Amino acid sequence: MSRAVLLPHALSSVAVARRYLCADLRAAGVVRSLVDDAAIVLTELLGNALRHAAPLPPPYPPQRVRAAWSLVRPGEGPQQADGTWVEISVSDGGGETLPRLAGPSVSALGGRGLAVVQRLSSRWGTELDENTTTVWAIIDIPVMPVASGTVPQFPRASSA
């Protein structure tokens, strides 16, 4: 499962991207708490791009940013890893500074977003090319143990 969306360079795009991401992960059977974590990470990455960076340059449509996510299952990733994870990325036209962890004061109104991303993800980073900056994060998704000879399943939220 993967999706990439071009969104207007406007704060209203955060809610749209979150709805798509959450629907995709729920449809894939990811447990609710991890869907919520992924939504928070996407919110932080996209919010930072919208506040601190320019829109994507041509050939992208004007005033757009790109959000993407992929659910990678065992054997599907570039390293054929055993684990399952969701990768979330946001691409923009870059800003005056690179994304970095900040050390805000207790009374600061902002500056904690990437610390939240770092806490919820197993790893995150930034990739640069000539005209774009992409910030990405990986959230590990544990697979429920199953009996021998059956296909592993993702944890599902219980319906009480």
From TrEMBL:
* Record keywords, A-Z: ATP-binding, Kinase, Nucleotide-binding, Serine/threonine-protein kinase, Transferase
- The answer to keyword Nucleotide-binding applying to this record is yes
* Residue ranges constituting the Histidine kinase/HSP90-like ATPase domain according to the UniProt record: 8-138
Instruction: Name a Pfam family for this protein.
Output: HATPase_c_2
Q: Which InterPro entries match?
A: Anti-sigma-factor_SerPK, HATPase_C_sf, HATPase_dom
Query: GO molecular-function annotation terms?
Result: ATP binding
Domain of life where this protein originates: Bacteria
The protein, known as: ATP-binding protein
> From what organism does this protein derive?
Thermobifida alba
